[in-house]
TrEMBL record:
Region (Disordered): 243-269
InterPro entries per record: DUF6178
Protein name as annotated: Uncharacterized protein
Length: 581
Protein backbone atom coordinates (compact mmCIF):
# COMPACT_ATOMS: atom_id res chain seq x y z
CA UNK A 1 0.00 0.00 0.00
CA UNK A 2 1.29 3.46 -0.83
CA UNK A 3 0.57 7.04 -0.03
CA UNK A 4 -2.29 8.50 -2.05
CA UNK A 5 -1.72 10.74 -5.02
CA UNK A 6 -3.03 14.19 -4.19
CA UNK A 7 -4.25 16.15 -7.20
CA UNK A 8 -4.61 19.63 -5.73
CA UNK A 9 -4.64 21.30 -9.14
CA UNK A 10 -7.89 19.46 -10.00
CA UNK A 11 -9.74 21.36 -7.29
CA UNK A 12 -12.56 23.54 -8.72
CA UNK A 13 -12.03 27.28 -8.56
CA UNK A 14 -14.25 29.40 -6.33
CA UNK A 15 -13.86 32.90 -4.97
CA UNK A 16 -12.42 32.83 -1.44
CA UNK A 17 -15.45 34.79 -0.26
CA UNK A 18 -17.76 31.94 -1.28
CA UNK A 19 -15.65 29.41 0.57
CA UNK A 20 -15.55 31.65 3.63
CA UNK A 21 -19.35 31.75 3.68
CA UNK A 22 -19.38 27.96 3.98
CA UNK A 23 -16.78 28.04 6.75
CA UNK A 24 -18.87 30.57 8.67
CA UNK A 25 -22.19 28.76 8.08
CA UNK A 26 -21.67 25.12 7.02
CA UNK A 27 -25.41 24.38 7.18
CA UNK A 28 -25.86 26.72 4.21
CA UNK A 29 -24.69 23.81 2.05
CA UNK A 30 -28.15 22.30 2.47
CA UNK A 31 -29.70 25.07 0.36
CA UNK A 32 -27.02 25.43 -2.32
CA UNK A 33 -27.35 23.81 -5.73
CA UNK A 34 -23.60 24.07 -6.26
CA UNK A 35 -22.72 22.42 -2.94
CA UNK A 36 -20.75 19.46 -4.41
CA UNK A 37 -18.49 21.73 -6.47
CA UNK A 38 -18.09 24.27 -3.68
CA UNK A 39 -17.15 21.53 -1.21
CA UNK A 40 -14.43 20.22 -3.49
CA UNK A 41 -13.11 23.78 -3.86
CA UNK A 42 -12.48 24.12 -0.13
CA UNK A 43 -8.81 24.13 0.89
CA UNK A 44 -7.92 21.26 3.20
CA UNK A 45 -7.75 23.21 6.46
CA UNK A 46 -11.01 25.00 5.72
CA UNK A 47 -12.64 21.68 4.81
CA UNK A 48 -11.59 20.19 8.15
CA UNK A 49 -13.06 23.20 9.98
CA UNK A 50 -16.37 22.73 8.15
CA UNK A 51 -16.31 18.98 8.86
CA UNK A 52 -15.88 19.56 12.59
CA UNK A 53 -18.79 22.00 12.69
CA UNK A 54 -21.09 19.67 10.74
CA UNK A 55 -20.05 16.76 12.95
CA UNK A 56 -21.31 18.72 15.93
CA UNK A 57 -24.57 19.37 14.06
CA UNK A 58 -24.91 15.69 13.04
CA UNK A 59 -25.03 16.77 9.37
CA UNK A 60 -21.89 15.32 7.84
CA UNK A 61 -24.14 13.88 5.11
CA UNK A 62 -24.02 17.38 3.57
CA UNK A 63 -20.26 17.24 3.22
CA UNK A 64 -18.50 13.88 3.20
CA UNK A 65 -20.18 12.23 0.19
CA UNK A 66 -18.91 15.10 -1.99
CA UNK A 67 -15.40 15.35 -0.54
CA UNK A 68 -12.24 14.50 -2.44
CA UNK A 69 -9.71 11.95 -1.24
CA UNK A 70 -7.33 14.83 -0.47
CA UNK A 71 -9.88 16.42 1.82
CA UNK A 72 -10.68 13.17 3.63
CA UNK A 73 -6.96 12.59 4.08
CA UNK A 74 -6.79 16.11 5.51
CA UNK A 75 -9.28 15.07 8.21
CA UNK A 76 -7.02 12.16 9.12
CA UNK A 77 -3.89 14.33 9.14
CA UNK A 78 -5.37 17.19 11.17
CA UNK A 79 -7.80 15.47 13.52
CA UNK A 80 -6.77 11.83 13.94
CA UNK A 81 -3.31 12.12 15.50
CA UNK A 82 -1.81 13.03 18.87
CA UNK A 83 1.77 14.04 18.27
CA UNK A 84 3.34 11.10 16.44
CA UNK A 85 0.72 8.51 17.35
CA UNK A 86 -2.69 7.83 15.89
CA UNK A 87 -5.53 8.93 18.17
CA UNK A 88 -7.47 5.70 17.71
CA UNK A 89 -10.76 6.88 19.21
CA UNK A 90 -10.92 10.03 17.06
CA UNK A 91 -9.71 8.23 13.94
CA UNK A 92 -12.24 5.43 14.34
CA UNK A 93 -15.04 7.91 14.95
CA UNK A 94 -14.19 9.65 11.68
CA UNK A 95 -14.25 6.34 9.80
CA UNK A 96 -17.63 5.60 11.34
CA UNK A 97 -18.91 9.04 10.33
CA UNK A 98 -17.61 8.58 6.79
CA UNK A 99 -19.30 5.23 6.19
CA UNK A 100 -22.47 6.55 7.82
CA UNK A 101 -22.49 9.62 5.55
CA UNK A 102 -21.92 7.41 2.50
CA UNK A 103 -24.87 5.28 3.54
CA UNK A 104 -27.11 8.28 4.24
CA UNK A 105 -26.08 9.84 0.93
CA UNK A 106 -26.86 6.60 -0.93
CA UNK A 107 -23.44 6.66 -2.55
CA UNK A 108 -23.04 4.09 -5.31
CA UNK A 109 -21.37 0.79 -4.51
CA UNK A 110 -17.63 0.73 -5.00
CA UNK A 111 -17.00 4.37 -4.05
CA UNK A 112 -16.08 3.52 -0.47
CA UNK A 113 -13.48 1.02 -1.68
CA UNK A 114 -12.05 3.64 -4.05
CA UNK A 115 -11.94 6.15 -1.21
CA UNK A 116 -9.94 3.73 0.94
CA UNK A 117 -7.38 3.30 -1.82
CA UNK A 118 -7.24 7.02 -2.66
CA UNK A 119 -6.75 8.08 0.96
CA UNK A 120 -4.51 6.17 3.36
CA UNK A 121 -5.50 2.46 3.48
CA UNK A 122 -3.15 2.20 6.45
CA UNK A 123 -5.34 4.58 8.45
CA UNK A 124 -8.34 2.30 7.91
CA UNK A 125 -6.26 -0.65 9.09
CA UNK A 126 -4.83 0.94 12.23
CA UNK A 127 -7.96 2.80 13.28
CA UNK A 128 -10.00 -0.41 13.29
CA UNK A 129 -7.27 -2.74 14.56
CA UNK A 130 -6.94 -1.52 18.15
CA UNK A 131 -8.62 -3.95 20.58
CA UNK A 132 -9.99 -5.91 17.60
CA UNK A 133 -9.42 -9.67 17.51
CA UNK A 134 -9.54 -11.53 14.20
CA UNK A 135 -9.70 -15.32 13.85
CA UNK A 136 -9.29 -16.87 10.42
CA UNK A 137 -11.55 -19.77 9.43
CA UNK A 138 -9.49 -21.91 7.06
CA UNK A 139 -12.56 -23.98 6.28
CA UNK A 140 -15.75 -21.88 6.42
CA UNK A 141 -17.85 -25.04 6.77
CA UNK A 142 -15.91 -26.28 9.82
CA UNK A 143 -18.53 -25.73 12.53
CA UNK A 144 -16.29 -27.20 15.22
CA UNK A 145 -13.56 -24.63 14.52
CA UNK A 146 -16.17 -21.84 14.42
CA UNK A 147 -17.59 -22.89 17.77
CA UNK A 148 -14.11 -23.00 19.31
CA UNK A 149 -13.38 -19.46 18.10
CA UNK A 150 -16.67 -18.18 19.48
CA UNK A 151 -15.90 -19.76 22.85
CA UNK A 152 -12.44 -18.18 22.85
CA UNK A 153 -14.05 -14.78 22.12
CA UNK A 154 -16.88 -15.20 24.60
CA UNK A 155 -15.89 -11.98 26.38
CA UNK A 156 -16.13 -10.02 23.11
CA UNK A 157 -18.90 -8.93 20.80
CA UNK A 158 -18.39 -11.09 17.70
CA UNK A 159 -19.27 -10.81 14.02
CA UNK A 160 -18.67 -13.31 11.23
CA UNK A 161 -17.70 -11.75 7.92
CA UNK A 162 -20.11 -12.31 4.99
CA UNK A 163 -17.54 -14.41 3.11
CA UNK A 164 -17.25 -16.79 6.05
CA UNK A 165 -13.45 -16.44 6.22
CA UNK A 166 -13.13 -14.52 9.50
CA UNK A 167 -14.71 -14.00 12.89
CA UNK A 168 -14.09 -10.54 14.33
CA UNK A 169 -14.32 -9.81 18.05
CA UNK A 170 -14.46 -6.36 19.61
CA UNK A 171 -15.15 -5.02 23.12
CA UNK A 172 -18.85 -4.58 23.76
CA UNK A 173 -18.71 -0.78 23.87
CA UNK A 174 -19.29 2.08 21.47
CA UNK A 175 -15.70 2.10 20.23
CA UNK A 176 -15.90 -1.61 19.44
CA UNK A 177 -19.24 -1.24 17.70
CA UNK A 178 -17.76 1.56 15.58
CA UNK A 179 -15.12 -0.87 14.30
CA UNK A 180 -17.78 -3.42 13.35
CA UNK A 181 -19.87 -0.79 11.56
CA UNK A 182 -16.85 0.26 9.51
CA UNK A 183 -15.94 -3.33 8.60
CA UNK A 184 -19.55 -4.15 7.73
CA UNK A 185 -19.79 -1.07 5.46
CA UNK A 186 -16.58 -1.96 3.62
CA UNK A 187 -17.74 -5.55 3.10
CA UNK A 188 -21.12 -4.30 1.94
CA UNK A 189 -19.43 -1.98 -0.57
CA UNK A 190 -16.90 -4.48 -1.92
CA UNK A 191 -16.48 -8.03 -0.66
CA UNK A 192 -12.87 -8.31 -1.83
CA UNK A 193 -11.81 -5.02 -0.23
CA UNK A 194 -13.52 -6.01 3.00
CA UNK A 195 -11.56 -9.26 3.08
CA UNK A 196 -8.31 -7.37 2.38
CA UNK A 197 -8.99 -4.96 5.23
CA UNK A 198 -9.71 -7.67 7.79
CA UNK A 199 -6.69 -9.67 6.63
CA UNK A 200 -4.47 -6.58 7.00
CA UNK A 201 -5.82 -5.99 10.50
CA UNK A 202 -4.82 -9.52 11.45
CA UNK A 203 -1.47 -9.88 9.71
CA UNK A 204 0.05 -6.38 9.40
CA UNK A 205 2.90 -5.30 11.65
CA UNK A 206 1.08 -2.34 13.08
CA UNK A 207 4.15 -0.47 14.33
CA UNK A 208 5.68 -0.51 10.84
CA UNK A 209 2.40 0.56 9.26
CA UNK A 210 2.10 3.49 11.67
CA UNK A 211 5.69 4.52 10.97
CA UNK A 212 5.02 4.61 7.23
CA UNK A 213 1.79 6.49 7.79
CA UNK A 214 3.54 9.06 9.97
CA UNK A 215 6.18 9.66 7.31
CA UNK A 216 3.56 10.32 4.64
CA UNK A 217 1.62 12.55 7.01
CA UNK A 218 4.69 14.68 7.72
CA UNK A 219 5.18 15.20 4.00
CA UNK A 220 1.59 16.32 3.52
CA UNK A 221 1.75 18.61 6.55
CA UNK A 222 4.86 20.21 5.07
CA UNK A 223 2.84 20.89 1.90
CA UNK A 224 0.23 22.63 4.09
CA UNK A 225 2.93 24.80 5.66
CA UNK A 226 3.72 22.75 8.78
CA UNK A 227 7.47 22.00 8.57
CA UNK A 228 9.44 19.58 10.70
CA UNK A 229 10.17 20.85 14.21
CA UNK A 230 13.89 21.46 13.71
CA UNK A 231 13.20 23.44 10.55
CA UNK A 232 10.42 25.44 12.18
CA UNK A 233 12.72 26.35 15.08
CA UNK A 234 14.74 28.53 12.70
CA UNK A 235 11.90 31.00 13.10
CA UNK A 236 13.24 31.67 16.60
CA UNK A 237 16.60 32.86 15.27
CA UNK A 238 16.54 36.66 15.69
CA UNK A 239 17.53 39.03 12.91
CA UNK A 240 19.21 42.38 13.46
CA UNK A 241 17.56 45.70 12.68
CA UNK A 242 19.86 46.23 9.72
CA UNK A 243 18.66 42.98 8.15
CA UNK A 244 15.12 44.34 7.77
CA UNK A 245 15.72 48.10 7.56
CA UNK A 246 17.51 47.80 4.23
CA UNK A 247 20.88 49.03 5.44
CA UNK A 248 22.74 45.75 4.98
CA UNK A 249 22.20 42.31 3.53
CA UNK A 250 21.40 39.64 6.12
CA UNK A 251 23.35 37.01 4.25
CA UNK A 252 20.31 34.94 3.26
CA UNK A 253 20.10 34.37 -0.47
CA UNK A 254 16.44 33.37 -0.79
CA UNK A 255 14.09 36.12 -2.04
CA UNK A 256 11.35 37.24 0.35
CA UNK A 257 8.67 35.21 -1.45
CA UNK A 258 10.69 32.06 -2.19
CA UNK A 259 9.05 30.02 0.57
CA UNK A 260 5.48 30.99 -0.32
CA UNK A 261 3.60 28.53 -2.56
CA UNK A 262 1.80 29.85 -5.63
CA UNK A 263 -1.54 28.40 -4.56
CA UNK A 264 -3.30 29.73 -1.49
CA UNK A 265 -3.15 26.85 1.00
CA UNK A 266 -6.07 28.02 3.09
CA UNK A 267 -8.35 30.96 3.66
CA UNK A 268 -6.85 34.13 5.17
CA UNK A 269 -7.74 35.23 8.70
CA UNK A 270 -10.47 37.81 9.03
CA UNK A 271 -7.90 40.49 9.92
CA UNK A 272 -4.29 41.01 10.84
CA UNK A 273 -4.73 42.29 14.35
CA UNK A 274 -6.76 44.91 16.14
CA UNK A 275 -7.76 48.07 14.21
CA UNK A 276 -5.22 50.18 16.12
CA UNK A 277 -2.31 47.85 15.29
CA UNK A 278 0.38 49.17 12.97
CA UNK A 279 0.50 45.93 10.98
CA UNK A 280 -3.17 45.99 10.03
CA UNK A 281 -2.97 49.59 8.83
CA UNK A 282 0.23 48.91 6.91
CA UNK A 283 -1.21 45.94 5.01
CA UNK A 284 -3.79 48.22 3.40
CA UNK A 285 -0.94 50.16 1.75
CA UNK A 286 -0.04 47.11 -0.36
CA UNK A 287 -1.41 46.54 -3.84
CA UNK A 288 -3.76 43.60 -4.39
CA UNK A 289 -1.11 41.17 -5.62
CA UNK A 290 1.29 41.96 -2.79
CA UNK A 291 -1.53 41.87 -0.25
CA UNK A 292 -2.56 38.39 -1.39
CA UNK A 293 1.07 37.22 -1.31
CA UNK A 294 1.61 38.49 2.24
CA UNK A 295 -1.63 36.97 3.49
CA UNK A 296 -0.42 33.60 2.27
CA UNK A 297 2.94 34.22 3.90
CA UNK A 298 1.22 35.20 7.12
CA UNK A 299 -0.69 31.91 7.25
CA UNK A 300 2.47 29.95 6.57
CA UNK A 301 4.11 31.90 9.39
CA UNK A 302 1.29 30.93 11.76
CA UNK A 303 1.59 27.27 10.73
CA UNK A 304 5.35 27.43 11.27
CA UNK A 305 4.78 28.85 14.75
CA UNK A 306 2.49 25.91 15.51
CA UNK A 307 5.14 23.44 14.36
CA UNK A 308 7.89 25.16 16.36
CA UNK A 309 5.81 24.96 19.56
CA UNK A 310 4.72 21.38 18.81
CA UNK A 311 1.08 22.38 18.58
CA UNK A 312 -1.20 19.80 16.99
CA UNK A 313 -1.75 21.03 13.39
CA UNK A 314 -5.48 20.36 13.55
CA UNK A 315 -6.16 22.09 16.87
CA UNK A 316 -8.25 25.13 15.96
CA UNK A 317 -7.80 26.82 19.34
CA UNK A 318 -4.02 26.53 19.06
CA UNK A 319 -4.17 27.67 15.45
CA UNK A 320 -6.00 30.80 16.58
CA UNK A 321 -3.36 31.27 19.26
CA UNK A 322 -0.54 30.98 16.72
CA UNK A 323 -2.28 33.53 14.49
CA UNK A 324 -2.43 35.89 17.48
CA UNK A 325 1.26 35.32 18.20
CA UNK A 326 2.21 36.09 14.60
CA UNK A 327 0.07 39.24 14.62
CA UNK A 328 1.55 40.43 17.90
CA UNK A 329 5.21 39.89 17.02
CA UNK A 330 4.85 41.48 13.59
CA UNK A 331 3.15 44.47 15.20
CA UNK A 332 5.98 44.68 17.73
CA UNK A 333 8.51 44.58 14.89
CA UNK A 334 6.73 47.46 13.17
CA UNK A 335 6.82 49.55 16.35
CA UNK A 336 10.49 48.76 16.88
CA UNK A 337 11.38 49.91 13.36
CA UNK A 338 9.40 53.12 13.68
CA UNK A 339 10.79 53.91 17.14
CA UNK A 340 14.34 53.79 15.78
CA UNK A 341 13.68 55.56 12.47
CA UNK A 342 10.89 58.16 12.54
CA UNK A 343 9.36 58.79 9.10
CA UNK A 344 6.93 61.30 7.68
CA UNK A 345 4.83 58.43 6.33
CA UNK A 346 5.56 55.56 8.74
CA UNK A 347 3.00 53.18 7.29
CA UNK A 348 4.39 53.55 3.78
CA UNK A 349 7.88 52.90 5.16
CA UNK A 350 6.80 49.67 6.86
CA UNK A 351 4.88 48.60 3.76
CA UNK A 352 8.05 49.05 1.71
CA UNK A 353 10.03 46.94 4.17
CA UNK A 354 7.40 44.18 4.07
CA UNK A 355 7.51 44.18 0.28
CA UNK A 356 11.30 44.05 0.36
CA UNK A 357 12.04 41.46 3.07
CA UNK A 358 8.70 39.74 3.72
CA UNK A 359 6.81 38.98 6.91
CA UNK A 360 8.95 36.04 8.01
CA UNK A 361 12.11 38.14 8.35
CA UNK A 362 10.12 40.91 9.97
CA UNK A 363 8.86 38.37 12.51
CA UNK A 364 12.41 37.24 13.29
CA UNK A 365 13.41 40.85 13.88
CA UNK A 366 10.45 41.32 16.23
CA UNK A 367 11.40 38.11 18.02
CA UNK A 368 14.82 39.53 18.95
CA UNK A 369 13.66 41.35 22.12
CA UNK A 370 11.55 38.32 23.04
CA UNK A 371 14.65 36.13 22.84
CA UNK A 372 16.46 38.48 25.22
CA UNK A 373 13.53 38.37 27.64
CA UNK A 374 13.54 34.57 27.50
CA UNK A 375 17.28 34.49 28.18
CA UNK A 376 16.89 36.74 31.22
CA UNK A 377 13.94 34.71 32.52
CA UNK A 378 15.85 31.44 32.14
CA UNK A 379 18.88 32.90 33.94
CA UNK A 380 16.69 33.95 36.86
CA UNK A 381 14.96 30.57 36.94
CA UNK A 382 18.23 28.65 36.95
CA UNK A 383 20.29 30.81 39.27
CA UNK A 384 17.96 32.98 41.31
CA UNK A 385 16.54 30.38 43.72
CA UNK A 386 13.02 31.28 42.61
CA UNK A 387 11.75 27.89 41.47
CA UNK A 388 11.01 24.53 43.04
CA UNK A 389 9.20 21.98 40.90
CA UNK A 390 7.70 24.61 38.60
CA UNK A 391 9.27 27.68 37.03
CA UNK A 392 8.87 30.70 39.28
CA UNK A 393 6.89 28.80 41.91
CA UNK A 394 8.60 30.68 44.78
CA UNK A 395 7.77 34.08 43.35
CA UNK A 396 4.70 36.05 44.38
CA UNK A 397 2.19 37.26 41.84
CA UNK A 398 2.64 38.78 39.31
CA UNK A 399 6.28 37.74 39.06
CA UNK A 400 5.84 33.97 39.32
CA UNK A 401 3.29 33.62 36.50
CA UNK A 402 5.31 36.09 34.41
CA UNK A 403 8.50 34.07 34.75
CA UNK A 404 6.63 30.87 33.88
CA UNK A 405 5.25 32.33 30.65
CA UNK A 406 8.45 34.13 29.63
CA UNK A 407 10.77 31.09 29.67
CA UNK A 408 9.08 29.36 26.71
CA UNK A 409 10.44 29.50 23.19
CA UNK A 410 7.73 32.02 22.48
CA UNK A 411 7.66 34.29 25.57
CA UNK A 412 4.27 35.66 26.60
CA UNK A 413 2.74 37.73 29.38
CA UNK A 414 0.35 36.20 31.90
CA UNK A 415 -3.26 37.31 31.74
CA UNK A 416 -4.36 38.98 34.97
CA UNK A 417 -6.82 36.90 37.02
CA UNK A 418 -6.65 34.07 34.48
CA UNK A 419 -4.51 31.00 33.99
CA UNK A 420 -3.63 31.82 30.38
CA UNK A 421 -1.12 34.10 28.70
CA UNK A 422 -1.01 36.49 25.76
CA UNK A 423 1.66 37.62 23.30
CA UNK A 424 3.67 40.81 23.69
CA UNK A 425 2.34 43.03 20.92
CA UNK A 426 3.80 46.49 21.64
CA UNK A 427 6.72 48.40 23.08
CA UNK A 428 4.60 48.98 26.19
CA UNK A 429 4.22 45.22 26.64
CA UNK A 430 7.96 44.81 26.15
CA UNK A 431 8.70 47.41 28.83
CA UNK A 432 6.20 45.76 31.20
CA UNK A 433 7.75 42.31 30.75
CA UNK A 434 11.26 43.72 31.23
CA UNK A 435 10.14 45.41 34.44
CA UNK A 436 8.60 42.19 35.77
CA UNK A 437 11.84 40.27 35.23
CA UNK A 438 13.83 43.05 36.88
CA UNK A 439 11.47 43.17 39.86
CA UNK A 440 11.56 39.39 40.26
CA UNK A 441 15.36 39.47 40.23
CA UNK A 442 15.38 42.26 42.79
CA UNK A 443 13.03 40.26 45.03
CA UNK A 444 15.31 37.22 44.87
CA UNK A 445 18.40 39.33 45.60
CA UNK A 446 16.63 41.14 48.44
CA UNK A 447 15.70 37.80 49.99
CA UNK A 448 18.99 35.92 49.82
CA UNK A 449 21.83 38.43 49.31
CA UNK A 450 23.94 39.22 52.36
CA UNK A 451 23.53 42.94 51.67
CA UNK A 452 19.77 42.39 51.60
CA UNK A 453 17.86 40.35 54.14
CA UNK A 454 20.33 37.46 54.01
CA UNK A 455 17.70 34.73 54.40
CA UNK A 456 19.24 31.27 54.50
CA UNK A 457 17.71 29.21 51.63
CA UNK A 458 17.54 26.24 54.02
CA UNK A 459 14.31 27.72 55.38
CA UNK A 460 12.56 26.75 52.16
CA UNK A 461 13.08 23.07 52.94
CA UNK A 462 12.18 23.47 56.61
CA UNK A 463 8.64 24.52 55.79
CA UNK A 464 6.04 21.74 56.04
CA UNK A 465 4.62 22.60 52.59
CA UNK A 466 7.39 24.27 50.54
CA UNK A 467 5.21 24.37 47.42
CA UNK A 468 2.94 26.89 49.17
CA UNK A 469 5.80 29.20 50.17
CA UNK A 470 6.65 32.45 48.38
CA UNK A 471 9.71 34.65 48.71
CA UNK A 472 7.36 37.41 49.82
CA UNK A 473 6.55 35.34 52.91
CA UNK A 474 10.25 35.18 53.78
CA UNK A 475 10.76 38.90 53.09
CA UNK A 476 7.82 39.96 55.26
CA UNK A 477 8.92 37.64 58.04
CA UNK A 478 12.50 38.90 57.94
CA UNK A 479 11.38 42.54 57.96
CA UNK A 480 9.07 41.97 60.93
CA UNK A 481 11.71 39.93 62.78
CA UNK A 482 14.19 42.77 62.43
CA UNK A 483 11.74 45.12 64.16
CA UNK A 484 11.14 42.87 67.18
CA UNK A 485 12.57 43.95 70.56
CA UNK A 486 15.92 42.41 71.36
CA UNK A 487 16.73 41.46 67.77
CA UNK A 488 20.05 42.67 66.42
CA UNK A 489 20.77 43.70 62.82
CA UNK A 490 22.73 40.53 62.09
CA UNK A 491 20.32 38.06 63.66
CA UNK A 492 19.02 35.24 61.50
CA UNK A 493 15.42 35.04 60.37
CA UNK A 494 13.22 33.02 62.69
CA UNK A 495 9.59 31.92 62.40
CA UNK A 496 7.15 34.17 64.21
CA UNK A 497 5.17 33.08 67.25
CA UNK A 498 1.89 34.39 68.69
CA UNK A 499 3.61 36.98 70.88
CA UNK A 500 5.63 38.27 67.90
CA UNK A 501 2.48 38.73 65.83
CA UNK A 502 0.65 40.48 68.65
CA UNK A 503 3.57 42.89 69.13
CA UNK A 504 3.81 43.54 65.38
CA UNK A 505 0.09 44.29 65.14
CA UNK A 506 0.32 46.72 68.06
CA UNK A 507 3.57 48.46 67.13
CA UNK A 508 3.96 48.35 63.32
CA UNK A 509 0.47 49.30 62.11
CA UNK A 510 -0.28 53.02 62.02
CA UNK A 511 -3.68 54.70 62.21
CA UNK A 512 -4.22 54.22 58.47
CA UNK A 513 -3.53 50.49 58.67
CA UNK A 514 -0.12 50.78 56.99
CA UNK A 515 3.36 49.68 58.06
CA UNK A 516 5.66 52.70 57.54
CA UNK A 517 8.56 51.33 59.57
CA UNK A 518 8.60 48.14 57.53
CA UNK A 519 8.32 50.18 54.31
CA UNK A 520 11.38 52.20 55.30
CA UNK A 521 13.33 49.06 56.18
CA UNK A 522 12.39 47.47 52.84
CA UNK A 523 13.60 50.46 50.84
CA UNK A 524 16.82 50.64 52.87
CA UNK A 525 17.61 47.02 52.02
CA UNK A 526 16.83 47.65 48.34
CA UNK A 527 19.25 50.59 48.34
CA UNK A 528 21.88 48.33 49.84
CA UNK A 529 21.62 45.86 46.94
CA UNK A 530 21.42 48.59 44.28
CA UNK A 531 17.74 48.03 43.48
CA UNK A 532 16.26 51.21 44.91
CA UNK A 533 14.34 51.81 41.67
CA UNK A 534 12.31 48.65 42.34
CA UNK A 535 11.11 49.91 45.72
CA UNK A 536 7.66 51.12 44.68
CA UNK A 537 6.86 47.96 42.71
CA UNK A 538 7.93 45.58 45.47
CA UNK A 539 6.34 47.60 48.27
CA UNK A 540 3.06 47.75 46.36
CA UNK A 541 2.85 43.93 46.27
CA UNK A 542 4.56 42.84 49.50
CA UNK A 543 3.44 45.32 52.14
CA UNK A 544 -0.35 45.42 51.72
CA UNK A 545 -0.44 41.68 52.42
CA UNK A 546 1.51 42.25 55.65
CA UNK A 547 -0.83 45.04 56.73
CA UNK A 548 -3.89 42.88 56.01
CA UNK A 549 -2.53 39.93 57.98
CA UNK A 550 -1.56 42.02 61.01
CA UNK A 551 -4.81 43.97 61.08
CA UNK A 552 -6.92 40.84 60.66
CA UNK A 553 -5.36 38.54 63.25
CA UNK A 554 -7.89 36.09 64.64
CA UNK A 555 -7.56 35.19 68.29
CA UNK A 556 -7.81 31.63 69.50
CA UNK A 557 -8.20 30.16 72.96
CA UNK A 558 -6.36 32.17 75.59
CA UNK A 559 -6.54 35.36 73.52
CA UNK A 560 -3.42 34.57 71.46
CA UNK A 561 -3.37 34.90 67.63
CA UNK A 562 -4.52 31.71 65.90
CA UNK A 563 -1.49 30.70 63.80
CA UNK A 564 -3.57 28.37 61.63
CA UNK A 565 -5.34 31.46 60.25
CA UNK A 566 -2.15 33.41 59.44
CA UNK A 567 -0.82 33.59 55.88
CA UNK A 568 1.84 35.60 54.10
CA UNK A 569 4.28 35.14 56.99
CA UNK A 570 6.49 32.30 58.19
CA UNK A 571 5.23 31.20 61.61
CA UNK A 572 6.10 28.30 63.88
CA UNK A 573 2.89 26.70 62.62
CA UNK A 574 4.47 26.37 59.15
CA UNK A 575 7.62 24.61 60.37
CA UNK A 576 6.01 22.20 62.81
CA UNK A 577 7.71 19.10 61.41
CA UNK A 578 11.15 20.75 61.55
CA UNK A 579 10.62 21.89 65.14
CA UNK A 580 9.84 18.32 66.20
CA UNK A 581 13.15 16.97 64.84
Amino acid sequence: MSTPEIRADDRPSYAPEQAQLVVDDPLSLDSRDDAPALIRALPVQSFVTVARKLRDEQRLDLLLPHASAEQITGIFDLDAWERDRIAVARAREWLDRIVDAYREGEVERGRLARLIHDTDPEMWILATAAATAVAELDEPDNDERRQQVLEDMSALHTWETPDGHYIVGVPDNELGRMALRVLFAVYDDNLVEGRKLVSAIKWSVHAEVEEDLLRWRKGRLADLGFPEWDEAMRLFTPLSRDAVSGRTDDGEDSPPAAHIPERRATLPPANLGAPHDVLRRVMHHLDDAEYDLRLREFLLLANELMAAQRYEPGDEALQERAVGQAQATLNLACELLLAAEPHDDPEAFIAARITSVGLRKLFRFGYGPLAKLRKAALALHRGGQVSLKQVGSLLDRPWGPALATLVGWYPELPVDSKAGSRPLRSLADLAHATALIGEAGALAQLTFAAEGLGVDPVWINRVDEPERLCLGDLVRTALVSAQLPGVGPGDELRPLGPADLRWAADQLLDARGQVPAVDAALRAKLRAIGAEDRGDALAKILLPRLAIELSGLELGEGGEPDLTKVGGLLTIQHVGMWLKT
